[in-house]
Amino acid sequence: MHSGKIHSLLPTYLGAMSRLGDKLKAILVQFPPSLDARALDAVARLIKMLPKDTWFAMEFRHGSWFEGDTGISLVQDIPSITIAGSIHPSIQPFIQETGDFYLFRFIGDREISSFGHITKDRSAQVKEIHEAIQREMQDIRDAFVFFNNHYAGFAPASASQYMEFAGMEAIKFPVPRSGQASLFDFDS
After folding, report:
1. Which of 27, 52, 121, 178 is the most exposed place for a label (fewest CB within 10 A)?
2. How far apart are CA 157 and CA 112, in angstroms?
3. Which superfamily does 3-185 belong to?
4. Structural domain boundaries of the chain?
5. pLDDT tens-digit series, residues 84-132
6. Is 187 exposed, middle or buried (CB count within 10 Å of its CB: 0-12, 13-18, 19+)?
7. Do 39 and 70 touch, CB atoms closer than 8 A?
8. Long-range contacts of 7-14, Cβ-Cβ distance < 8 Å, separation of 24 or more
């Protein structure tokens, strides 16, 4: 990590993000899978540069950050920073309260290429993650859960499924018919 370059670019980036106003809830800081815990000092310097009045979610994608308290030690006692969880092939999902909020990303592995409907049933995993978040996150103010299309084929339907597990009103998406639609399939 080049902290000098980050230090010079960070004010510009944060200024641009601040234009979102109340719509800005949290900023995800995603580290590459190759960044291991040997970069602890560099990440600590980055965290010191971050303003305390904005929520940041640190997404570590190398398993070394989760050995012992390595990653947690960086954000301990900083309520505006949390360690994000995600579905990633090389690490177990991290679900632990480390800040005032929590962020989890359901990200697929790019093997799905047909979008618009659920093509891979991952409802058991979605339910398992939801239950773990409910169990582990007793004192957080907000939780943000995101899906991409590569996770199960259609991110809006996956998010709706999560909403249903959370006791919220789910949005039902019709399963597309195969073949060409007729004129009678469209509402006026």
Report:
1. 178
2. 15
3. Protein of unknown function UPF0759 (3.20.20.410)
4. 3-185
5. 999 987 788 999 999 999 999 999 888 888 898 899 999 999 999 999 9
6. exposed
7. no
8. 7/49, 10/49, 10/50, 14/51, 14/54
